[in-house]
Amino acid sequence: MPVQHKRKLELMMTRDEAASFLAALAKGLESGSLAVGQSGLDIQGFKSLSVSFKSHPDGLYAKIKCKFPKPEGPCACPACTDPQVQGEGAPAAVCVKSGGKYGSLKKRMKSQFKSIMESLAQGVLPGLELVEAFAADGERMCAFPGKGDEFYPVYLEKNAAFLAAVQAGDVAAARLLAGELDQLKHDCHDRYK
User: Fold this and answer.
1) 96, 182: one domain
2) Is residue 72 domain-resident?
3) Of 5, 35, 108, 155, which is most buried, counting CB atoms within 10 Å of its CB?
4) pTM score, two decimals?
5) CB 14 within 8 A of CB 59
6) How far apart (Å, rounded) are the C-alpha atoms in residues 98 and 100?
């Protein structure tokens, strides 16, 4: 069973109950467990704890959110669990965990690629640091299963070739490969978005 990194408790209470709840919260912080009526919330080892109250016609709506640190060590992505990826001579895989959330990764890549395409449209090579970051993010993206797996091998090949073209200072090849990456992106998004 996966470890929960977030726990939440929502309940309605009167203003008098809210005062008692806050006193119980203080005791719960000392003991590591929060008991509220019939409900309980284990808060031992929390990273952040937030409590909010909203006025409601029936009293107060209380929401308690508790976040916990993510465990150290490998996650369950293919880069961390696949023995072929881990084996000697296997290509270096990128851990999904190291790249953050998929949505954040995709937003960052969209911004990077826009800057890259603007530079190339002006006939100028984009900055190497930007292209290296984009290439690394592309590798991270391809470690997420079920998001376009059949496109990944071709994408990784074009991604590496694009980085090599920029490193070699070849504007024409970089423009051609960026166009191919853009087409792959559209083909994948047409199918998966």
Assistant:
1) yes
2) no
3) 155
4) 0.52
5) yes
6) 6
